[in-house]
Amino acid sequence: MWIMIETNDRIAGLAAELFHEHGITTTGVDALSKAAGISKRTLYERFGSKDGLIVAAYEALDLPVFRTLTEAAEAASDTPRGQLEAFFAQTETMIRMPDFRGCPFSNASAELADSDHPAHKVVRRHKERIRRWLLRRARDAGARKPEELTRQLMLVFAGAQAQALVEQSPRAAREARAIAATLLDATIPAR
């Protein structure tokens, strides 16, 4: 049984890469099964449908993407405010990567027109995980109106990724970092 789970995780990871690189709708089951080295029948047996594989793919991305952003921020500073600043520094680093194609979760949400698609739940859970991480640090840093600050930081974070993708430039990430610093200065009392 553990071999099947391990194989399913590998297939979901491959699917996530293909979906992010080529798009969900343009990546067919033929390409997915070929990349995974399995038949279409086996793919359907393991995931039920392409929709099942889409959900599994984004579930496989959830924690690794979250940890890429937050673990680096936590390692960079011992203070909540420092971690918030480091989060945006890590966002800039991520955006500067040559293979950056935007947020895979936002891209999936935009591409999946059916609002009832089960992958939307995975996307919302991922974004909520990031929001809670930011909120915890905003509260611990003593921010006035930490919920409002967190909402603003989420908008800056999402906007930086989207604008960097449109511009094909890391400029938006640098600007987002400056905007985040301004928001933090305005809402976290100096100590």
Global mean pLDDT: 93
SSE pattern, N- to C-terminal: HHHHHHHHH
The low-confidence parts are: none
Number of helices, counting only DSSP H or I runs of 4 residues or more? 9
Largest sheet composition: none
CATH class: Mainly Alpha
What does this 3D model show about the protein?
- By secondary structure, this protein is mostly helical.
- It has a single domain (2-187), classed as Tetracycline Repressor, domain 2.
- The protein is 78% helix and 0% strand.
- It has helices at 2-22, 29-36, 40-47, 50-76, 80-95, 104-111, 119-140, 146-167, 171-187.
- It is elongated.
- The model has no long low-confidence stretch (mean pLDDT 93).
Question: Which characteristics define this entry?
Answer:
191 residues; 9 helices; single chain; mainly alpha; 78% helix; Tetracycline Repressor, domain 2
